[in-house]
Amino acid sequence: xxxxxxxxxxxxxxxADAEIPSHQLMLRAGMIRSLSAGIYSYLPLGYRxxxxxxxxxxxxxxxxxxxxxxxxxxxxxxxxxxxxxxEEFGPLMVRFKDRNxxxxxxxxxxxxxxxxxxxxxxxxxxxxPFNLYQIQTKVRDEIRPRFGLMRAKEFIMKDAxxxxxxxxxxxxxxxxxxxxxxxxxxxxxxxxxxxxxxxGAMGGSGSHEFMVLADSGEDDLAFCSECDYxxxxxxxxxxxxxxxxxxxxxxxxxxxxxxxxxxxxSTVADGPAEVSAGNSDYSPAEATTSEAEIEKVHTPDAxxxxxxxxxxxxSPGKMIKTMAYIADDQPVVALVRGDDQLNEVKFRNYLGAIxxxxxxxxxxxEKFGSVAGFIGPVDLPENIRxxxxxxxxxxxxxxxxxxxxxxxxxNVNPHRDIAKIEAFTELRTVQAGDPCPRCGGxxxxxxxxxxxxIFKLGTKYSSNMGATYLDENGKAQPIVMGSYGIGxxxxxxxxxxxxxxxxxxxxxxPLAPFQIIILPLGNxxxxxxxxxxxYKELQEAGLEVLLDDRxxxxxxxxxxxxxxxxxxxxxxxxxxLENDEFEVQIRRTGKDFNIDRSSACxxxxxxxxxxx
Length: 612
Ligand SMILES: [Zn+2]
Hints:
Rossmann fold, BirA Bifunctional Protein, domain 2, 16 helices, nine-stranded mixed sheet, 27% strand, YbaK protein, 612 residues
């Protein structure tokens, strides 16, 4: 391809609203353009990358035995009502009506369509198993689309669905897809980790995420330093180890929680692990035998953990943090230790709630009979569900809000004083340094970008939608399903996050829009002719070549070549031609050297084999 006839509108400046490298660089490299927030056009250079990701995914899906189909993007509401997800998906789903007032959505995923396709056709166990996949545009009305292709409203996804007779079949199909995914990301040149994941609204019994490690990743992942335990922190658990808890070194306050939630919005990074000297009777051994009376103490303006630490000499680990939430319009309360962070995903999963949000300040008196900043679990109104993290049950002589402005309660024993705790369960977010649930080793936290997600769905959709088959005894059984996604456009963005430098993108060779870029420099017919000749020769050898034949200065050509991240650059100038040589530079290493003009093509083919 010749750049003089190409459409590659590069930008010198970093666009103001682009926050992360992939968004900035893909805009600057003229690969994508935004139509409106979260909605993108893929321009020629960007679309070549997307097509490469698609092709790798397609080849590995085909190799795994999956069959490619294309399902409608426009789906009728009826099937979503049958599965029970018309309500469940909430505002994330784009809904509309046709001229006859019939309800539709733009498919955010296709489990329902798959169940509909098979329910009238699959009759017997002999028709199973099989696996259908598609590569298609999906639409989700993200509340805050940002980060370019990383979280867009419209994106390209590969989704596959396995259909089996039983759990054994599903386990095999799942493993087969798992292996295919490992191959896909390896072929894309991405450093990925597989982690145990939360199945969220999908339901089902098992789930893994494939994560690209990158600083800009939106997901936090917990890794064990000793064994191969790895999980999304949405799901990760730490071994229960009450007696030697130490606050994490890097544990920023969770900014997504309302600042007014009692004793929240406070970082306890450097807090003492246990109560200060002189209070040694706060040992776990005595936890359940305390007789100390509950007492109300005056704590003027102490609305955060830090305020309290200063005022009444108690460690964060002895405080009961009371988090007021509204779950599907009902007031609920979560209790976690003052040195822990509430994990909203775990809380929502426990409650089985569709929507969960922190209570607004004005709801504290109205719905909780309390006051923001001083809410506590003792004597809350009867209708409020109270759920406690399991680390709460070991506490004694704890401190918590008194539901009265400027007062806290001390000597609180959760078992004695909070009668209405309906469960002690896992609610906290794991922290760096926590003990691994498998081996007790130390957990590390890293950020990652989710590029693939696989689910064992089981029979949720087939049961609700009547997708059954007749088993060997002629008895109707629900088809057992699995669902497997890869964010195609997100893979491209994640590749940029993992592979860039201060000059631009450094594409892994398998995803690069072109393998080679030729830069003829200076005004010379001889140079132009040599460039043209090499261009043709490389093309005939089946290589993907971009020829920068634009009438531009050398600096512009060099900058653009680095920005768009072509793995191999060949520079042709009058001086090197005199020696019958071309200059070659490898984008990733910056290594440059000369090659003989006469054997250039074979030398370049060889170099491409060596480049990763
Ligand atoms: Zn471990």
